[in-house]
């Protein structure tokens, strides 16, 4: 199989202006808040309605051909079985393209936040500790992950965050009285529901559709990057800065979620 690469050139002044939005705040806390909300509230995968509209206009041969998804180990993961699957695959392809295009820019922006503002690790942990709905160990994990990113230790950053996103989503699901654990059924042992199920469940309770699809495409969806599983199974040979930056952004977004006022506060959970 051959790999084809097509470079996309973006003027330096446009990149500098885009990155400046995230870095030119009075305080690193303002910059982190901007970063966790993506591009003015839009996730790296873009808005779902716009992506569907773009997909509908695409009549190229590529959009008509089913594609098998290959994992990091070189084995097939998923292949569309019907028209609905093909539509989901095409939408995911649009999202993946946008995410991969934006990822290096978000990586640069996050790096520049550290260069410009020099956040102190203890202050970062205190900043996240103010979010009372977070599990007790998450502020420490977030502070460690950001510190490691700014030190260019992207692998440690990624492996710190990948499982904790699921922890936070599970706490949110418990807070709104949704099941997060399946008890044993005959020979099937008890287990927690999957990450994809948690994202879908929270979508029914107000999780923004575009951000929900971003989390799924990045972390758990078989048509997307499926990064949580690829990392857990050791199929990622090298964790890049863009990959780590997207994980941080996804984690920060989830860390800012909270149950609505009419829902009970979450029960702290530690792992």
Task: Explain how this protein is built.
With 271 residues, this protein is mostly helical. Helix 8 (154-175) runs parallel beside helix 12. It is 58% helix and 3% strand. Strand 1 and strand 2 form a beta hairpin. It starts with 11 loop residues before the first helix and ends in a 16-residue tail after the last helix. The longest helix is centred in the middle third of the chain and has 35 residues, at 83-117. The chain is globular and about 50 Å long. The mean pLDDT is 88.
Write a short abstract of this structure.
By secondary structure, the protein is mainly alpha-helical. The chain has helices spanning 12-23, 28-36, 48-57, 61-64, 83-117, 121-129, 138-150, 154-175, 195-203, 209-220, 227-232, 241-255, and strands at 69-70, 76-78, 181-182, 191-192. The strands form two sheets. Strands 1-2 form a two-stranded antiparallel ribbon. A two-stranded antiparallel sheet has the order 3-4.
Strand order of the largest sheet: 1-2
Report the mean per-residue pLDDT as an integer: 88
Number of strands: 4
The assigned structural class equals mainly alpha
Low-confidence stretches: none
Q: Largest sheet, described in full? A: 2 strands, antiparallel
The shape is globular
Distance between the termini: 42 Å
Over the alpha carbons, how many angstroms does the gyration radius reach? Answer: 19 Å
Based on the structure, what is the oligomeric state of the protein chains? Answer: single chain
Number of helices: 12
Strand content: under 5%
Order of helices and strands: HHHHEEHHHHEEHHHH
Give the % helix.
55-70%
């Amino acid at each position: 199989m051959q790999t084809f690469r097509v470079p996309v050139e973006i003027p330096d002044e446009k990149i500098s202006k885009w990155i400046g939005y995230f870095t030119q705040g009075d305080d690193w806390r303002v910059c982190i808040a901007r970063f966790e909300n993506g591009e003015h509230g839009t996730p790296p995968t873009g808005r779902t309605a716009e992506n569907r509209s773009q997909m509908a206009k695409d009549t190229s041969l590529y959009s008509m051909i089913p594609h098998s998804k290959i994992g990091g180990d070189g084995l097939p993961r998923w292949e569309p079985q019907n028209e609905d699957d093909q539509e989901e695959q095409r939408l995911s392809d649009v999202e993946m393209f946008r995410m991969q295009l934006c990822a290096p820019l978000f990586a640069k922006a996050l790096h520049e936040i550290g260069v410009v503002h020099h956040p102190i690790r203890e202050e970062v942990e205190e900043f996240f500790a103010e979010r009372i709905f977070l599990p007790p160990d998450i502020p420490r994990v977030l502070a460690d992950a950001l510190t490691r990113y700014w030190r260019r230790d992207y692998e440690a950053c990624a492996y710190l965050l990948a499982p904790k996103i699921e922890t936070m989503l599970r706490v949110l699901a418990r807070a709104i009285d949704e099941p997060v654990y399946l008890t044993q059924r005959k020979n099937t042992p008890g287990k927690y529901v999957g990450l994809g199920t948690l994202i879908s469940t929270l979508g029914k309770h107000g999780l923004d559709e575009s951000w929900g699809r971003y989390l799924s495409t990045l972390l758990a969806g078989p048509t997307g990057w499926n990064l949580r599983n690829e990392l857990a199974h050791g199929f990622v040979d090298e964790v890049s800065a863009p990959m780590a930056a997207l994980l941080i952004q996804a984690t920060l977004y989830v860390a800012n979620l909270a149950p609505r006022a009419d829902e009970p506060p979450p029960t702290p959970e530690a792992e």
